[in-house]
Protein backbone atom coordinates (compact mmCIF):
# COMPACT_ATOMS: atom_id res chain seq x y z
CA UNK A 1 0.00 0.00 0.00
CA UNK A 2 1.18 3.50 -0.80
CA UNK A 3 2.11 5.85 2.03
CA UNK A 4 0.64 8.75 0.09
CA UNK A 5 -2.81 10.32 0.33
CA UNK A 6 -4.59 9.25 -2.84
CA UNK A 7 -5.29 12.86 -3.94
CA UNK A 8 -4.28 12.06 -7.52
CA UNK A 9 -5.48 9.27 -9.79
CA UNK A 10 -2.00 8.24 -10.83
CA UNK A 11 -1.01 6.12 -13.79
CA UNK A 12 1.11 3.09 -12.94
CA UNK A 13 3.81 4.63 -15.10
CA UNK A 14 7.02 6.24 -13.95
CA UNK A 15 8.89 8.62 -16.19
CA UNK A 16 12.56 8.22 -15.36
CA UNK A 17 14.28 10.54 -17.81
CA UNK A 18 13.49 13.46 -20.07
CA UNK A 19 15.24 15.43 -22.74
CA UNK A 20 13.52 18.08 -24.84
CA UNK A 21 10.10 16.75 -25.87
CA UNK A 22 11.02 13.10 -25.23
CA UNK A 23 10.51 11.26 -21.95
CA UNK A 24 11.27 7.65 -21.14
CA UNK A 25 9.45 5.33 -18.72
CA UNK A 26 10.79 2.66 -16.36
CA UNK A 27 10.48 0.03 -19.11
CA UNK A 28 12.52 2.04 -21.60
CA UNK A 29 9.50 3.02 -23.71
CA UNK A 30 9.74 6.60 -24.97
CA UNK A 31 6.98 9.14 -25.49
CA UNK A 32 6.43 12.55 -27.01
CA UNK A 33 5.49 14.60 -23.97
CA UNK A 34 2.55 16.81 -24.94
CA UNK A 35 1.70 17.40 -21.27
CA UNK A 36 4.97 19.10 -20.24
CA UNK A 37 4.21 18.66 -16.55
CA UNK A 38 0.97 20.60 -17.26
CA UNK A 39 2.42 23.60 -19.10
CA UNK A 40 5.49 23.69 -16.84
CA UNK A 41 8.35 22.43 -19.03
CA UNK A 42 7.94 25.12 -21.68
CA UNK A 43 11.59 24.71 -22.71
CA UNK A 44 11.27 20.92 -22.73
CA UNK A 45 12.95 18.61 -20.24
CA UNK A 46 16.37 19.49 -18.86
CA UNK A 47 16.94 22.65 -20.95
CA UNK A 48 20.67 23.39 -21.02
CA UNK A 49 20.49 27.13 -20.21
CA UNK A 50 18.30 26.61 -17.13
CA UNK A 51 20.31 23.62 -15.95
CA UNK A 52 23.50 25.68 -16.17
CA UNK A 53 21.96 28.60 -14.27
CA UNK A 54 20.77 26.33 -11.43
CA UNK A 55 24.14 24.53 -11.31
CA UNK A 56 25.99 27.83 -11.08
CA UNK A 57 23.68 29.03 -8.31
CA UNK A 58 24.15 25.71 -6.45
CA UNK A 59 27.86 26.49 -6.27
CA UNK A 60 27.33 29.86 -4.57
CA UNK A 61 24.28 30.05 -2.28
CA UNK A 62 20.95 28.14 -2.23
CA UNK A 63 18.68 30.05 0.03
CA UNK A 64 18.62 33.37 1.84
CA UNK A 65 15.66 35.07 3.43
CA UNK A 66 13.88 37.96 1.77
CA UNK A 67 15.34 40.08 4.58
CA UNK A 68 18.39 40.28 2.27
CA UNK A 69 18.97 41.67 -1.20
CA UNK A 70 18.61 38.94 -3.85
CA UNK A 71 19.98 40.28 -7.12
CA UNK A 72 18.67 37.53 -9.41
CA UNK A 73 15.19 38.16 -7.94
CA UNK A 74 15.54 41.77 -9.11
CA UNK A 75 16.62 40.55 -12.56
CA UNK A 76 13.76 38.08 -12.94
CA UNK A 77 11.32 40.82 -11.88
CA UNK A 78 12.81 43.23 -14.44
CA UNK A 79 12.23 40.66 -17.19
CA UNK A 80 8.58 40.16 -16.17
CA UNK A 81 7.98 43.92 -15.93
CA UNK A 82 9.68 44.62 -19.28
CA UNK A 83 7.35 42.11 -20.97
CA UNK A 84 4.01 43.04 -19.41
CA UNK A 85 1.79 45.95 -18.36
CA UNK A 86 3.02 45.57 -14.75
CA UNK A 87 5.58 47.59 -12.79
CA UNK A 88 6.33 45.41 -9.75
CA UNK A 89 6.54 41.71 -8.88
CA UNK A 90 5.96 39.59 -5.77
CA UNK A 91 7.47 36.09 -5.95
CA UNK A 92 5.93 33.00 -4.34
CA UNK A 93 6.01 29.24 -5.00
CA UNK A 94 2.89 28.25 -6.93
CA UNK A 95 -0.07 29.42 -8.96
CA UNK A 96 -2.47 29.31 -6.04
CA UNK A 97 -0.13 31.46 -3.96
CA UNK A 98 0.15 33.98 -6.80
CA UNK A 99 -3.65 34.24 -6.95
CA UNK A 100 -3.86 34.34 -3.15
CA UNK A 101 -1.51 37.36 -3.21
CA UNK A 102 -3.60 38.97 -5.95
CA UNK A 103 -6.84 38.57 -3.97
CA UNK A 104 -5.24 39.95 -0.81
CA UNK A 105 -3.75 42.90 -2.69
CA UNK A 106 -7.07 43.68 -4.41
CA UNK A 107 -8.92 43.77 -1.08
CA UNK A 108 -6.18 45.76 0.65
CA UNK A 109 -5.83 48.28 -2.15
CA UNK A 110 -9.51 48.92 -2.85
CA UNK A 111 -10.80 48.53 0.70
CA UNK A 112 -13.61 46.44 -0.84
CA UNK A 113 -14.38 42.72 -0.54
CA UNK A 114 -16.20 41.09 -3.45
CA UNK A 115 -14.17 39.08 -5.94
CA UNK A 116 -15.99 38.13 -9.14
CA UNK A 117 -14.83 35.15 -11.16
CA UNK A 118 -16.30 32.91 -13.85
CA UNK A 119 -17.94 29.51 -14.09
CA UNK A 120 -15.58 26.71 -15.19
CA UNK A 121 -12.61 28.78 -14.02
CA UNK A 122 -9.70 27.33 -12.08
CA UNK A 123 -7.62 29.48 -9.75
CA UNK A 124 -6.15 27.03 -7.21
CA UNK A 125 -6.78 24.91 -4.12
CA UNK A 126 -6.16 27.23 -1.17
CA UNK A 127 -9.26 28.59 0.56
CA UNK A 128 -9.29 31.93 -1.25
CA UNK A 129 -8.38 30.52 -4.66
CA UNK A 130 -10.78 27.58 -4.26
CA UNK A 131 -13.47 30.12 -3.37
CA UNK A 132 -12.59 32.01 -6.58
CA UNK A 133 -12.77 28.80 -8.64
CA UNK A 134 -16.15 28.50 -10.37
CA UNK A 135 -16.46 24.70 -10.21
CA UNK A 136 -18.58 22.94 -7.62
CA UNK A 137 -16.55 19.74 -7.85
CA UNK A 138 -13.57 21.67 -6.42
CA UNK A 139 -15.63 23.04 -3.49
CA UNK A 140 -17.34 19.82 -2.37
CA UNK A 141 -17.03 18.90 1.31
CA UNK A 142 -14.93 21.84 2.42
CA UNK A 143 -17.65 23.64 4.32
CA UNK A 144 -18.30 27.33 3.99
CA UNK A 145 -16.12 29.00 1.39
CA UNK A 146 -14.74 32.48 1.98
CA UNK A 147 -17.46 35.10 1.84
CA UNK A 148 -17.89 37.59 -1.02
CA UNK A 149 -17.00 35.46 -4.04
CA UNK A 150 -19.44 35.52 -7.00
CA UNK A 151 -19.40 33.59 -10.28
CA UNK A 152 -20.70 34.68 -13.67
CA UNK A 153 -21.01 32.71 -16.91
CA UNK A 154 -17.82 32.96 -19.04
CA UNK A 155 -17.90 34.86 -22.34
CA UNK A 156 -21.26 36.37 -21.37
CA UNK A 157 -21.01 40.12 -22.01
CA UNK A 158 -24.51 40.85 -20.73
CA UNK A 159 -23.73 39.20 -17.39
CA UNK A 160 -20.61 41.37 -17.08
CA UNK A 161 -22.49 44.54 -18.00
CA UNK A 162 -25.06 43.65 -15.35
CA UNK A 163 -22.51 43.71 -12.52
CA UNK A 164 -23.38 46.41 -10.04
CA UNK A 165 -22.73 47.38 -6.44
CA UNK A 166 -20.28 49.25 -4.32
CA UNK A 167 -18.27 46.42 -2.89
CA UNK A 168 -16.40 44.92 -5.85
CA UNK A 169 -12.64 44.67 -5.27
CA UNK A 170 -11.69 42.74 -8.39
CA UNK A 171 -12.71 40.59 -11.30
CA UNK A 172 -10.38 37.62 -11.85
CA UNK A 173 -10.37 35.97 -15.26
CA UNK A 174 -8.39 33.51 -17.37
CA UNK A 175 -8.17 34.82 -20.94
CA UNK A 176 -8.24 31.17 -22.01
CA UNK A 177 -9.75 28.81 -19.45
CA UNK A 178 -7.26 25.94 -19.14
CA UNK A 179 -8.59 23.35 -16.70
CA UNK A 180 -12.16 24.32 -17.57
CA UNK A 181 -11.87 22.91 -21.11
CA UNK A 182 -9.51 25.14 -23.15
CA UNK A 183 -12.13 27.88 -23.63
CA UNK A 184 -10.73 31.02 -25.24
CA UNK A 185 -12.31 34.27 -24.09
CA UNK A 186 -13.60 36.55 -26.82
CA UNK A 187 -12.12 39.97 -27.42
CA UNK A 188 -15.43 41.72 -26.72
CA UNK A 189 -16.00 39.76 -23.49
CA UNK A 190 -12.53 40.55 -22.11
CA UNK A 191 -12.89 44.21 -23.06
CA UNK A 192 -16.27 44.31 -21.33
CA UNK A 193 -14.62 42.88 -18.19
CA UNK A 194 -11.92 45.56 -18.31
CA UNK A 195 -14.49 48.29 -18.92
CA UNK A 196 -16.59 47.12 -15.98
CA UNK A 197 -13.54 47.12 -13.68
CA UNK A 198 -12.79 50.73 -14.66
CA UNK A 199 -16.39 51.77 -14.12
CA UNK A 200 -16.54 50.18 -10.65
CA UNK A 201 -13.05 51.11 -9.48
CA UNK A 202 -12.28 47.38 -9.25
CA UNK A 203 -9.01 45.72 -10.24
CA UNK A 204 -8.69 43.47 -13.28
CA UNK A 205 -6.75 40.32 -12.32
CA UNK A 206 -5.70 38.08 -15.21
CA UNK A 207 -4.76 34.55 -14.14
CA UNK A 208 -1.92 33.52 -16.47
CA UNK A 209 -0.72 30.61 -14.37
CA UNK A 210 -1.25 28.27 -17.33
CA UNK A 211 -1.31 30.66 -20.31
CA UNK A 212 1.71 32.81 -19.41
CA UNK A 213 5.45 32.50 -20.14
CA UNK A 214 5.19 32.13 -23.91
CA UNK A 215 2.60 29.33 -23.95
CA UNK A 216 0.41 31.10 -26.53
CA UNK A 217 3.24 32.66 -28.58
CA UNK A 218 3.39 35.95 -26.63
CA UNK A 219 4.90 36.54 -23.18
CA UNK A 220 1.36 36.59 -21.72
CA UNK A 221 -1.87 35.52 -23.38
CA UNK A 222 -3.75 38.72 -22.46
CA UNK A 223 -1.44 40.47 -24.96
CA UNK A 224 -3.49 38.90 -27.78
CA UNK A 225 -6.38 41.09 -26.61
CA UNK A 226 -6.38 44.88 -26.21
CA UNK A 227 -6.55 44.85 -22.42
CA UNK A 228 -4.18 46.05 -19.74
CA UNK A 229 -4.66 44.15 -16.45
CA UNK A 230 -3.90 45.70 -13.07
CA UNK A 231 -2.62 42.35 -11.79
CA UNK A 232 -1.19 39.34 -13.64
CA UNK A 233 -0.49 36.03 -11.92
CA UNK A 234 1.78 33.36 -13.32
CA UNK A 235 3.61 30.21 -12.21
CA UNK A 236 3.61 26.98 -14.21
CA UNK A 237 6.12 27.76 -16.96
CA UNK A 238 8.10 30.30 -14.94
CA UNK A 239 10.84 28.05 -13.56
CA UNK A 240 11.00 25.28 -16.21
CA UNK A 241 10.05 22.79 -13.46
CA UNK A 242 11.57 24.56 -10.48
CA UNK A 243 8.58 25.50 -8.26
CA UNK A 244 8.01 29.25 -8.47
CA UNK A 245 5.10 31.67 -8.89
CA UNK A 246 4.72 35.41 -9.31
CA UNK A 247 2.16 38.16 -8.93
CA UNK A 248 2.72 41.22 -11.10
CA UNK A 249 0.99 44.54 -10.49
CA UNK A 250 0.81 48.10 -11.77
CA UNK A 251 2.64 50.98 -10.11
CA UNK A 252 -0.36 52.44 -8.26
CA UNK A 253 -0.66 49.19 -6.26
CA UNK A 254 2.90 49.35 -4.91
CA UNK A 255 2.10 51.32 -1.71
CA UNK A 256 -0.57 48.74 -0.75
CA UNK A 257 2.01 45.93 -0.52
CA UNK A 258 4.45 47.70 1.80
CA UNK A 259 6.91 46.02 4.19
CA UNK A 260 5.31 43.44 6.46
CA UNK A 261 1.96 43.29 4.64
CA UNK A 262 2.59 40.03 2.77
CA UNK A 263 5.46 37.58 2.46
CA UNK A 264 6.83 34.09 1.86
CA UNK A 265 9.81 32.22 3.29
CA UNK A 266 10.78 30.52 0.05
CA UNK A 267 9.27 32.93 -2.49
CA UNK A 268 11.94 34.20 -4.86
CA UNK A 269 14.86 32.36 -3.31
CA UNK A 270 18.15 32.36 -5.24
CA UNK A 271 17.77 28.84 -6.69
CA UNK A 272 14.22 29.48 -7.92
CA UNK A 273 15.28 32.84 -9.34
CA UNK A 274 18.21 31.32 -11.21
CA UNK A 275 15.71 29.00 -12.90
CA UNK A 276 13.20 31.80 -13.57
CA UNK A 277 15.77 34.26 -14.90
CA UNK A 278 17.27 31.75 -17.34
CA UNK A 279 13.79 30.63 -18.44
CA UNK A 280 12.59 34.18 -19.09
CA UNK A 281 15.80 35.24 -20.85
CA UNK A 282 15.23 32.39 -23.30
CA UNK A 283 11.48 32.54 -23.81
CA UNK A 284 11.04 36.33 -23.89
CA UNK A 285 13.17 36.65 -27.06
CA UNK A 286 11.21 37.91 -30.02
CA UNK A 287 12.59 35.30 -32.44
CA UNK A 288 11.84 32.49 -29.98
CA UNK A 289 8.22 33.57 -29.58
CA UNK A 290 7.84 34.20 -33.30
CA UNK A 291 8.86 30.62 -33.98
CA UNK A 292 6.45 29.30 -31.34
CA UNK A 293 3.63 31.22 -32.99
CA UNK A 294 4.44 29.92 -36.46
CA UNK A 295 4.89 26.29 -35.42
CA UNK A 296 1.73 26.36 -33.32
CA UNK A 297 -0.43 28.00 -36.00
CA UNK A 298 0.70 25.47 -38.60
CA UNK A 299 0.05 22.56 -36.22
CA UNK A 300 -3.37 23.82 -35.13
CA UNK A 301 -4.36 24.55 -38.74
CA UNK A 302 -3.29 21.08 -39.77
CA UNK A 303 -5.16 19.15 -37.10
CA UNK A 304 -8.24 21.36 -37.52
CA UNK A 305 -8.29 20.55 -41.21
CA UNK A 306 -7.70 16.83 -40.67
CA UNK A 307 -10.28 16.48 -37.92
CA UNK A 308 -12.96 18.50 -39.73
CA UNK A 309 -14.59 15.41 -41.13
CA UNK A 310 -14.36 13.25 -38.00
CA UNK A 311 -17.91 12.98 -36.64
CA UNK A 312 -16.83 12.44 -33.02
CA UNK A 313 -14.82 15.70 -33.03
CA UNK A 314 -16.92 18.70 -32.03
CA UNK A 315 -14.33 21.46 -32.07
CA UNK A 316 -10.58 22.07 -32.19
CA UNK A 317 -9.57 25.30 -30.46
CA UNK A 318 -6.85 27.13 -28.59
CA UNK A 319 -4.00 29.57 -29.00
CA UNK A 320 -0.33 28.82 -29.45
CA UNK A 321 0.52 25.54 -27.79
CA UNK A 322 -2.54 25.42 -25.55
CA UNK A 323 -4.84 23.30 -27.70
CA UNK A 324 -8.15 21.60 -26.93
CA UNK A 325 -9.94 18.98 -29.01
CA UNK A 326 -13.54 18.67 -27.86
CA UNK A 327 -15.22 15.35 -28.59
CA UNK A 328 -18.82 14.16 -28.43
CA UNK A 329 -17.71 11.45 -25.99
CA UNK A 330 -15.47 11.08 -22.96
CA UNK A 331 -11.78 11.10 -23.80
CA UNK A 332 -10.16 9.00 -21.08
CA UNK A 333 -9.80 5.83 -23.20
CA UNK A 334 -8.35 7.90 -26.04
CA UNK A 335 -5.64 9.28 -23.75
CA UNK A 336 -4.80 5.64 -22.87
CA UNK A 337 -4.59 4.77 -26.58
CA UNK A 338 -2.44 7.82 -27.33
CA UNK A 339 -0.09 6.77 -24.55
CA UNK A 340 0.12 3.28 -26.07
CA UNK A 341 1.10 4.97 -29.34
CA UNK A 342 3.79 6.98 -27.53
CA UNK A 343 2.06 10.34 -27.13
CA UNK A 344 1.32 11.81 -23.70
CA UNK A 345 -1.74 14.07 -23.72
CA UNK A 346 -4.07 15.41 -21.07
CA UNK A 347 -7.76 16.06 -20.64
CA UNK A 348 -9.46 19.33 -19.70
CA UNK A 349 -12.80 18.19 -18.35
CA UNK A 350 -14.29 14.86 -19.45
CA UNK A 351 -14.63 15.57 -23.19
CA UNK A 352 -11.62 17.64 -24.17
CA UNK A 353 -8.17 16.36 -25.12
CA UNK A 354 -5.63 19.00 -24.12
CA UNK A 355 -2.26 19.28 -25.88
CA UNK A 356 0.55 21.23 -24.20
CA UNK A 357 3.82 20.39 -25.99
CA UNK A 358 7.03 22.12 -24.94
CA UNK A 359 7.44 25.41 -26.85
CA UNK A 360 10.70 23.96 -28.16
CA UNK A 361 8.96 21.04 -29.91
CA UNK A 362 10.39 20.38 -33.39
CA UNK A 363 8.47 20.23 -36.68
CA UNK A 364 9.26 16.51 -36.90
CA UNK A 365 7.87 15.88 -33.44
CA UNK A 366 4.72 17.83 -34.30
CA UNK A 367 4.34 15.78 -37.45
CA UNK A 368 4.79 12.56 -35.52
CA UNK A 369 2.33 13.65 -32.82
CA UNK A 370 -0.31 14.64 -35.35
CA UNK A 371 -0.01 11.23 -37.04
CA UNK A 372 -0.52 9.45 -33.72
CA UNK A 373 -3.45 11.70 -32.90
CA UNK A 374 -5.14 11.16 -36.26
CA UNK A 375 -4.64 7.42 -35.99
CA UNK A 376 -6.25 7.23 -32.55
CA UNK A 377 -9.10 9.51 -33.57
CA UNK A 378 -9.74 7.24 -36.54
CA UNK A 379 -8.57 9.35 -39.44
CA UNK A 380 -7.38 7.07 -42.27
CA UNK A 381 -3.62 7.26 -42.43
CA UNK A 382 -2.68 8.54 -45.88
CA UNK A 383 0.40 10.31 -44.52
CA UNK A 384 -0.25 13.61 -42.83
CA UNK A 385 0.38 16.69 -44.98
CA UNK A 386 1.87 18.62 -42.10
CA UNK A 387 4.95 20.82 -42.87
C1 LIG B 1 -2.64 25.34 -12.38
C2 LIG B 1 -3.41 26.58 -12.23
C3 LIG B 1 -3.52 27.24 -10.98
C4 LIG B 1 -2.96 26.64 -9.71
O1 LIG B 1 -1.58 26.55 -9.71
P1 LIG B 1 -0.83 25.66 -8.60
O2 LIG B 1 0.62 25.87 -8.87
O3 LIG B 1 -1.27 24.25 -8.79
O4 LIG B 1 -1.25 26.18 -7.27
C5 LIG B 1 -4.19 28.44 -10.93
N1 LIG B 1 -4.72 28.99 -12.04
C6 LIG B 1 -4.65 28.41 -13.24
C7 LIG B 1 -5.25 29.07 -14.44
C8 LIG B 1 -4.00 27.17 -13.38
O5 LIG B 1 -3.96 26.57 -14.58
From TrEMBL:
Binds 1 pyridoxal phosphate per subunit. The keyword DNA-binding does not apply. It is found in: Cytoplasm. One of its GO terms (molecular function) is N2-acetyl-L-ornithine:2-oxoglutarate 5-aminotransferase activity. Its cofactor is pyridoxal 5'-phosphate. The modification N6-(pyridoxal phosphate)lysine is found at residue 236. Pyridoxal 5'-phosphate binds at residues 95-96, 122, 207-210, 265. Its EC number is 2.6.1.11. N(2)-acetyl-L-ornithine binds at residues 125, 264. Keywords: Amino-acid biosynthesis, Aminotransferase, Arginine biosynthesis, Cytoplasm, Pyridoxal phosphate, Transferase. SUPFAM superfamilies: PLP-dependent transferases. It comes from the Bacteria. The keyword tRNA processing does not apply. Pfam families: Aminotran_3 (PF00202). It is an enzyme of class 2 (transferase). Pathway: Amino-acid biosynthesis; L-arginine biosynthesis; N(2)-acetyl-L-ornithine from L-glutamate: step 4/4. It catalyses: N(2)-acetyl-L-ornithine + 2-oxoglutarate = N-acetyl-L-glutamate 5-semialdehyde + L-glutamate. May also have succinyldiaminopimelate aminotransferase activity, thus carrying out the corresponding step in lysine biosynthesis. Belongs to the class-III pyridoxal-phosphate-dependent aminotransferase family. ArgD subfamily. Homodimer. This is Acetylornithine aminotransferase. It comes from Bacillus seohaeanensis. The gene is argD.
